[in-house]
Amino acid sequence: MLTPNDNDEDFEIVFVSSDCDQPGFDSYFNTMPWLALPFGDPAIKSLTKHFDGQGIPCLITLGPDGKTITKHGRSLINLYQENAYPFTEAKVDLLGKQMDEEAKNLPISEYHASALNWGYEVHPKCVRPVDFGSMLER
């Protein structure tokens, strides 16, 4: 679970639902330990439009100044779990470099199994570029 360390700044998680009905909202919200905007709150539509919220669930992180840190919080948590915090570009770059270093030491036979554990469907080192131009000529 994401919780700030003693040395970190405090943060707050607020659930902004895109559920279609109150029972759906209640079912999902009852599993969460954080705050939420009430189901159907008019601010939900404004926030979704302002932050261009796409996909369910969507995790957008904001800094203390209210500026967007990332709109890709969900992907970052899927990939790096709690290590993604505080979601900054510098942190993501560091985690990416660490993952690349770990991948260098894996035997080819381990790429796909390990990739699934890290949130990839295939490891980036396993995917070769595709020349779509030559494919279209066939």
Largest sheet: 2 strands, parallel
Task: Quote the beta fraction.
Answer: 5-15%
Q: What's the end-to-end separation, in Å? A: 50 Å
The beta-strand count equals 4
Query: Which value, in Å, is the CA radius of gyration?
Result: 19 Å
Roughly what percent helix?
Answer: 25-40%
Highest CATH level, the class of the domain at 1-86: Alpha Beta
Number of H- or I-type helical stretches? 6
CATH topology (fold) name of the domain at 1-86: Glutaredoxin
**How would you state the average pLDDT, rounded?**
77
- Low-confidence runs of at least 5 consecutive residues: 134-138
CATH superfamily of the domain at 1-86: Glutaredoxin
Protein structure class: mainly alpha
CATH architecture of the domain at 1-86: 3-Layer(aba) Sandwich
